[in-house]
Amino acid sequence: MGFCGIGRGVILYACQDAGFTPPEHPNAILQESIGRAGFPPVDESELIAAWKETINGPEKSWVLFRNGTCVILMKPAADLAAQAKTLLREFGPVHSSSTFGDFSTIELNNGRGWVVTSHHPDILTLVGPDEAMSTSDMLIGLQGRTKRGMDAEEVEVLHVEDRRGN
Question: Which residues, listed in sequence order, are joined to residue 5 by a DSSP beta bridge?
Answer without folding.
Answer: 12
